[in-house]
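Q: Structure tokens for this one, please.
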Amino acid sequence: MYIRKRKNPSGGISVAAVVKRHGKSREVKIFGTADTDEEVSKLYADAQHWLQTNGNQLPIDFEDERGREREETRRVIGNMDAVLLNGTQLLLGQVYDRIGFSQVPDEILRHLVIARVSQPRSKLATVAYLKSYYDEDVDLNHIYHYMDKLYNTQKDLVQQISVEHTRKYWCPLKLLFLMRARVCACEA
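A: Here is the predicted structure, written as tokens:
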């Protein structure tokens, strides 16, 4: 059941309580016809009062509902303290470990490698990426100093890990390519 305001051919506005069933509307009670906005507002208020007392309908308090929604939203966000899930980081972290770079005792290298592989951009963009996706607050100058330090102290270890990994997987691939080339040459 609801309240309907309808403009009449005479120019007045009639206010009525209406029930809609099976696609057809039926007026249950007519509250009157008014010519001014003040009269229409009074008839509408009377209709709402009648509807609440006689229509077996409870009023919906939207303001209270919004308050509960806000409170629930704050509670949920409060429980999410620092949860950052990133599938790229999880996947590339496993690749990083399998290659063997985890032998380099430094987390900054790990973050830089994963960030540069997933988002190959400038060092400045890498700093912004680390901040927004991994909540890592790294200064650009710190990255430059770190790269100098890495080059001076860990260069040989990083090269050795890279070469070992490449040898491990390049030889079987090279053999596969050679065998495929011979099969293609024989077929021709």
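A few notes: The beta strands are 2-7, 13-21, 24-34. The radius of gyration is 36 Å.
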